[in-house]
Each structure stands twice: as structure tokens, then as C-alpha cells.
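=== RUN LOG ===
request id: a7f3
mode: sequence -> structure
chains: 1
length: 248
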Amino acid sequence: MSMYRASQGIAQASNPNAPAPIPASSVISARGLTKVFGSGDQAVTAVKEIQMDIMPGEFLAVTGRSGSGKTTLLNLLAGLDQPTSGGVVFEGRNLTEFSESQLVDMRRSRIGFVFQSFGLIPLLSAYENVELPLHIGGTRWRERRQRAGEALELVGLGSRTGHRPYELSGGEQQRVAIARALVTGPSVLFADEPTGELDSVTGISIATILRDIARERGVTVVTATHDLALAGMCTRRLEMADGAFVER
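=== RESULT ===
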């Protein structure tokens, strides 16, 4: 029996120190989530005993200083890294039980990623960058064209589909990155410092897009950010320090 299988729960009434049961409605839950890099005297605990539940359609900000553990936490929640102890339940399944191929399939179909540096391929147009995940996944051409076009329209770039990244502003490049993250129809979008390389006005426009994605499309958006304007638009904010959540 998996300690973290959501359908079975993980707390026993007879053990008051057991982790809280995982809500059946949560899209992501973590219990005792810990990540240690190195060993012995060189060991650094980046994430410490995190307990959290994230609900469908939530717009969640994880804030804190650089080095507080925000990015490591996102990587663990998304299955990009393995915890030292504890576990993550994603849509009712314990990620520690996934094979590598199952993790890849999950990330391709159920999770979208947006990064601070955009991560666009310079020689591809906006449309081609957005279409690429579908092409890799074997989606037929006609469906790829429709879904990539719809994703670019969603972020307000329907008229810029043929432009390459160097022909786009920083804000437009991040919009393309968001469209690419959404084109596979994920249930969760992870955004690591999505406004970190943008000016404040452009950052607010990106934050608004992320908020609307959660509010209008029901996609769960989890962002790690230093941007207080972005954090202020979220439905919930958690602050980290030294790998753990702290009171604000």
C-alpha cells in the first residue's frame, strides 16, 4: 500500500502525528516533501517537510528570497526531480510510483511549463514553437494547426504567428511560451519567475494572462515569483524561507 495514495488517505485517527489526509478534490498534494542535495557535512536541505494541497483552478504564488527553495519545490511538484523523502500525489497518483516513461508522458500531457528565460527556439516562428510539443507527441497536422492557432489567439498573438523570437518583445516572447505550455491541454501550469525578465507594466500583462487562464479555463497555475504585483493577483500566496513555508 502506498503511503501517499490519495484514494486510501495517509492519516490514521489513532496517530495524531500522522500527516493530514489528502483531499480527494486536490490536483496536487505533498506530504513530508523533503529534498537534500549532497551528503554529510556538505548536505543542504533545499525543501523541508512541505505539506500542501493545491486545488483545481487555483492561482497559487510561492514567494521568498532567492535560495529559499521555491524552484526546487516546483521541480518536485512537477515530477522533474525526485524527493529525498516524502511524496507528491498528482491527480490521485503518487509520483514516486511512476516510471521515467510515465513521468515523461504525464509532463507532456498534463503539465505545462513557463520559465523566466522564455526557452523559445530562435529559428522557429511563434507558431512553430507553440506547435512543437504537439508534433513531438504525434498529433496530426490538422489538429496541430488548429490548437496552436487557438493557443496564440488566447494570449493575444494571433497576428504574430509568423514572427521569430528575435522579432518579438520580451512580453510577446513570454506570451508565446505560455501558449506553448497550454497547447497540450494541461491541468496544471508551473511558471517559474515568469515576469523576472520583464518590466513592471509588461509583467502585469503576463500576470493577467495567467490569472485569466486559471479563472476562465480552470487550469491550476502555480508560480514561483519575487514579483509582488504578480503574487497579489493570485488567489493564494505561500512564502518560503530556508526550504519551509513561513508566516507572512
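=== NOTES ===
The two ends are 37 Å apart (CA to CA).
Confidence is low (pLDDT under 50) at residues 1-16.
=== END ===
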